[in-house]
Amino acid sequence: MPELPEVEVVRRGLERWVSGRTVAEVQVLHPRAVRRHLGGPEDFAARLRGRRTGIVRRRGKYLWLPFDDDAAAEAVLAHLGMSGQLLVQPAEAPDEKHLRIRVRFADDAGTELRFVDQRTFGGLSLHDTVPGDLEGLPDAIAHIARDPLDPAFDEAAFHTALRRRRTTIKRALLDQSLISGVGNIYADEALWRARLHYDRSTATLARPRAAELLGHVREVMTAALAVGGTSFDSLYVNVNGESGYFERSLDAYGRENEPCRRCGTAMRRRPWMNRSSFFCPRCQRPPRPAIAARPASRPAASPLPARTVS
């Protein structure tokens, strides 16, 4: 699935090409694409018509489009799923094979927004926003934590929650209620940079090491953003259909049996939660298995003195 850098690349494109435009018409070409909208396809299209879009926002792997008008406090939530694409295309461009939703605008810019999704795991839906939230956060994702590139991300709270989870480091990095936007690829990359094994307990991570790991998460995501994210195939593209190329710079993910760029040891891959974890067995030493404490042996009882019979 696309992670924070890939979703942020899409957000920036939408901000440039979609924000501030008025919706003229919405066509839902596949009902599954709006399955999370309780009112159904016709209601979804009708409630968007005539609305003026605000600035596109993102939290973790989710995008949302608030409205800059006086209507109800609502926002369109977008989740790309495994293969979803939000494309800005010329109105006269041929339809994509897996086009699911088309949004036309009431202006002469000549472009429209298209949601294309081969596997239909993603979708769009309309939600109420959290009362008082300045960014118009949809209530459906109010439980999602802020991401490490968010200026409001609370490092102290992150470390405290990390120590309390009693889990392993990679599981914690992928917990979207703890820190959002990090997926399998960038977790492996950050852990390689921090020289931490994915199975190490969060309870053993002191505050300086947690801060160091968080710094590496930010570094790898910032580097990926600079080159458009990671695209292993044509499914992960920006709004213009262009792929990112950060996969050329990956140090851990996908490099099984290749030499570690730091020490030369062959990289390894291990099955992990229906995914794979890539690591260097020398730079990222696995944690030692816990040894069960044995009960202390009782000292041998001293013999009772013999009783004298008178």
TrEMBL record:
Compositionally biased spans, kind Low complexity: 290-310
Names of the cofactor(s): Zn(2+)
Note on how the cofactor is bound: Binds 1 zinc ion per subunit.
Source organism, top-level taxon: Bacteria
Domain spans labelled FPG-type: 251-285
Family as reported in the entry's similarity comment: Belongs to the FPG family.
Protein name in the entry: Formamidopyrimidine-DNA glycosylase
Organism: Streptomyces niphimycinicus
